[in-house]
């Protein structure tokens, strides 16, 4: 079995080394071994404007969001502090003031 890392673009497992570069035969992506060592390990989540979000950031809701199973609504402009990024469909875990713990989709927020 190979000790080479999976492709950072398409996550294909059968990569190979060519003249000091790692190559993915599936998507054609090339990268150096040092790039692979310095790559971020967690999920990369971007807000509605394309800004990268990180754990602990403060975000602002950009659309009224209905709370499933309740008649309450998270209003536009609601600021949420100290977010946590997770993998999945709802990629932000947070506590919204007045509502409680909730999962949000990054497409409905912007970095504050």
TrEMBL record:
NCBIfam families: phnA. Residues 45-112 form the Protein YjdM C-terminal domain. InterPro entries: YjdM, YjdM_C, YjdM_N. Gene3D superfamilies: 2.20.25.10, SH3 Domains. This is Alkylphosphonate utilization operon protein PhnA. Coiled coil: none annotated. SUPFAM superfamilies: Prokaryotic SH3-related domain, Zinc beta-ribbon. Pfam families: YjdM, Zn_Ribbon_YjdM. Residues 4-32 form the Protein YjdM N-terminal domain. Belongs to the YjdM family. It comes from Gimesia fumaroli.
């Amino acid at each position: 079995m190979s000790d080479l890392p999976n492709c950072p673009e398409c996550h294909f497992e059968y990569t190979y080394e060519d003249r000091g570069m790692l190559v993915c035969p599936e998507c054609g992506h090339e990268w150096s071994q040092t790039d692979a060592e310095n790559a971020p390990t967690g999920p990369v989540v971007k807000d509605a404007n394309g800004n990268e979000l990180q754990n602990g950031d403060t975000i602002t809701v950009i659309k009224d969001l209905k709370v499933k199973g309740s008649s309450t609504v998270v209003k536009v402009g609601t600021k949420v502090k100290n977010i946590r990024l997770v993998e999945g469909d709802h990629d932000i875990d947070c506590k919204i003031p007045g509502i409680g713990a909730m999962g949000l989709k990054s497409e409905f927020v912007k970095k504050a």
